[in-house]
Q: What sequence folds into this?
């Protein structure tokens, strides 16, 4: 089925094999002796235990070529899953703090995206995420650095450790990003409470909410999301791996669908969470019993929820 992937951290597509290849190429040493021991470390207890390893492995990404190789590997994989459009997140603050210039990051990702589109693979747009745990002042400084690349970006987002970092703190930087012509999205309601989803909608004015699964705790919020057709970018395998949800069989996506919410299915950080986007659809079919018609609705929702509609081909 043709589908869009709208919640995908490109750094979260770094497979252990590529991580070791890039480490060797760049003279970087990982804490793990081999790919098997790195894979064994993928046993997470929550979001922060994942983020620690995810940020650690980013050390191997140093040059434009590295970002190109990373995105090319993902886009080839996504093409095999029927993905025609990707709106990929990246974390500029992590790379800038390691001394990697933004131009190398964006240049590499854009080069991979251009080759993918030219060869009939997925079209790709870029969403720069602010790390919410570094606070609004750091986000504002990052937006200043991003401004000269605004023409290469689709939008901005908000990610990293959620609880204790409410979206409302970032009102000014999100409004400034819109002033640069950028779309806005935010992670909310993954580990954080429904109030954070309300804030993402009412204070940040985002066009989509990333995760948003804890919205099921608040009937008024479900009604609001359904009435506005605000897309949620839900990531089932991620939610289970990070223990936000016990199992696919009890995933709140069923409640969201029943409430008429505009749900999409995505992979988040597929190298770390045991599956790419089609694996997420298949898990919902196998373990939650979603039928083909529902999967087709989810795929159609994803195509309609793109921030920018690429020309038909
Ligand atoms: N949540 C927050 N930040 C992230 C995630 C996530 O699921 N993946 C990568 N950064
Ligand atoms: Zn995410």
A:
């Amino acid at each position: 089925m043709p589908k869009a992937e709208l919640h995908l951290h490109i750094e979260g597509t770094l497979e252990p094999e590529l991580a070791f290849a890039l480490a060797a190429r760049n003279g970087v040493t990982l804490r793990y002796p081999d790919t098997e021991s790195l894979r064994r470390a993928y046993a997470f207890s929550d979001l922060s235990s994942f983020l620690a390893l995810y940020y650690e492995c980013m050390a191997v990404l140093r040059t434009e070529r590295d970002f190109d190789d990373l995105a090319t590997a993902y886009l080839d994989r996504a093409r095999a899953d029927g993905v025609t459009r990707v709106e990929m997140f990246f974390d500029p603050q992590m790379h800038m703090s390691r001394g990697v210039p933004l131009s190398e990051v964006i240049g590499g990702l854009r080069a991979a995206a251009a080759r993918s589109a030219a060869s009939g693979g997925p079209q790709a747009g870029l969403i720069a995420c602010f790390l919410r745990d570094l606070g609004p002042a750091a986000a504002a400084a990052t937006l200043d650095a991003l401004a000269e690349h605004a023409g290469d970006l689709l939008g901005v987002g908000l990610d990293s450790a959620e609880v204790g970092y409410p979206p409302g703190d970032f009102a000014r930087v999100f409004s400034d990003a819109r002033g640069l012509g950028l779309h806005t999205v935010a992670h909310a309601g993954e580990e954080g409470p429904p109030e954070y989803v309300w804030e993402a909608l009412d204070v940040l004015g985002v066009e989509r909410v990333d995760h948003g699964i804890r919205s099921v705790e608040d009937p008024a919020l479900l009604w609001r999301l359904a009435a506005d057709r605000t897309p949620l970018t839900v990531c089932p395998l991620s939610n289970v791996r990070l223990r936000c949800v016990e199992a696919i069989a009890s995933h709140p996506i069923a409640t969201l669908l029943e409430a008429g919410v505009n749900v999409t299915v995505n992979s988040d950080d597929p190298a770390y969470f045991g599956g790419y986007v089609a694996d997420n659809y298949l898990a919902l079919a196998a373990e939650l019993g979603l039928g083909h018609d529902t999967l087709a609705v989810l795929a159609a929702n994803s195509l309609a929820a793109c921030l920018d509609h690429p020309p038909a081909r």
Q: What stands out?
A: The chain has one domain: 3-303. The longest helix spans residues 64-80.
